[in-house]
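[job 4471] stage=fold_predict status=RUNNING
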Amino acid sequence: MVIKVFLASSSGSTAIKKKQQDVLGFLEALKVDYAPLDIACNEDNRMWMRENVPVEKKPTNGIPLPPQIFNEESYCGDYETFFDAKEDNAVFAFLGLPPPPGSKEAKEAEKAFILENGPVENGTVEIETVESETVESGTDDAEDEENLEAEEVEEENLDDDSLKPPVKQEEAQEEVEDEEAKGEDDQPVSEQEEEDE
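[job 4471] inference complete, writing structure tokens
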């Protein structure tokens, strides 16, 4: 795929010249193959560019100004859209090209891919999702949430004496007697009491 950049080699506007230089310089820095097509010296290039810029992208007078950028026959945009893509680190996406490995744009594209499709291992996508794991275990998300809530309620209830099951009368009496016996043993004994025993 060749990127076509329509330029005007003999433009009287310094703003247009500066925009053209900015686009070409950035494409060269990224090592993107492009073909500069002059619309000032070649009437065919001028007519092709004017016919292929989408109507919604043309200015009010109907004549688009250079630079205009195409990927083969596909319109990419003008300087303003190129500049926006450059600011967003999305120039390769703007141009319709795959980003080079290791570039910032490639890393962002990989992160977006992983978010949409899951982690990639050795070039293949793992198809492990939370949904498939719960289906294998025979439960679904709603049941898991109910079980989790029930466990939380049980934990809270362990601390609340009013929610404990009732204790039989005999067991309660035995506990009281045991505590009293412990209490007697824990009391300091005076010398007098020791002599009486």
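[job 4471] summary: DSSP finds nine helices and six strands in the chain.
[job 4471] exit 0
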